[in-house]
């Protein structure tokens, strides 16, 4: 790797004035194809089609962002973002399979089968609504639990007529400087396979540094989500956040509470799915960010059973990372259920202390914990429903009556509930023998399952009560 970068440096040349298709600033460095390993073959065919068609129509267009960064690091990019001088309308006219999304800073989505290529027009220096600019879901109102949030989002939709578009779009160079980190501001040109670097991103890639472009405090204030992005890229790439870029994070961490909960949810998903969630968790804690995302969990981590809580979360994150590494899917509801499990227990104890029975206490505690959390991160309704099911199953899996056992086993989220139970056992809760019983139960054939259930019933003496069908207050 070192060698490659060395080679790049020695081949870097200043662009000629008027370099096609757009005059580049004298501050840009152009790395020719002979000095790096990226080629057009590394890019998805849909993105290539878009780039070529834009170029053929006379517009400059580049691959940017994570795609270029990850390819230079020999990693597989998650997606390929494209930036161009063409306006959204011009892009739209060139591609019949496209649609414009977004309110203020509009993007174009071009669909090729299942792949969607996102194309953005170069951003200017004067755009002021950063959250809208970088939130590609800005037009979608999340289905979340809070009508107030929905209302706020609807109200914040500015009528199209009074939008000011001055300064929203800009030059390629302006676009580079509007990006978050130097390593995310590299452009790749398909025509000659060169990489264009305005912000010394290549040097930072070489030194494994996450460096904010411009004044870090100002850029974090503009968009606090950048602090989470810094952490995510540091964890995912094994980089360090450069000193000056790291310095203001602690002081500004509280700004996260002003980020719309739906955007926080999107970021939370990216953090969890990064494949390096253990490191993400450590960095979020280290920089004082975690407490502004999961305040109740943070309190439990610093409470009397902090070690148990921390162990539980870490084991879950390790498993998440391992699942991602082996190509398995992750249910965000599971991770939310994990992160909020101890706040739930704390709240349940409180209600039990008030004289409520276990079921009622659980229900009240769930409502409290979710209400508090969803004001930070608003998960879609189906995620919250799954999360409640996973928690509810923890009680149902502990039932000894045959009917209840069968019902729990047939539940659509049984597997997630069982995995959650295993996790609790592994993290030191006294549910190991229960988890073992369910493991045996799943491995057994029907006849053996009958025997297991009968044994359990006779041990607990619950048979007599078996015929009494009482509706659990947990059931919605
Ligand atoms: P990945 O897709 O692997 O998560 P990425 O760097 O491509 O990483 P995206 O969210 O896809 O991240 O954004 C694409 C590019 O847009 C980034 O590389 C960066 O240049 C720019 N960008 C995204 N979000 C912001 C932001 N909040 N502030 C400034 N620039 C941003
Ligand atoms: Mg990307």
Q: What would your notes on this structure say?
A:
- The protein has 476 residues and is of the alpha+beta class.
- Helix content is 52%, strand content 8%.
- The chain has helices spanning 2-11, 45-56, 66-72, 88-94, 130-133, 147-155, 172-178, 201-206, 216-222, 225-237, 243-246, 249-252, 261-272, 277-286, 290-293, 295-301, 306-325, 332-339, 341-353, 358-374, 381-396, 402-410, 414-426, 432-443, 446-460, and strands spanning 29-31, 61-64, 81-84, 98-101, 107-112, 115-121, 186-189, 194-197, 209-210, 240-241.
- An 8-stranded mixed β-sheet has the order 1-8-7-2-3-6-5-4. Strands 9-10 form a two-stranded parallel sheet.
- Helix 10 (225-237) packs parallel to helix 13 (261-272).
- The longest helix is centred in the middle third of the chain and has 20 residues, at 306-325.
- The protein is elongated and about 80 Å long.
- It binds adenosine-5'-triphosphate and magnesium ion.
- Residues 65-66, 78-79, 81, 134, 179-180, 184-185, 223, 225-226 line the site of adenosine-5'-triphosphate.
- Adenosine-5'-triphosphate is lined by residues 65-66, 78-79, 81, 134, 179-180, 184-185, 223, 225-226.
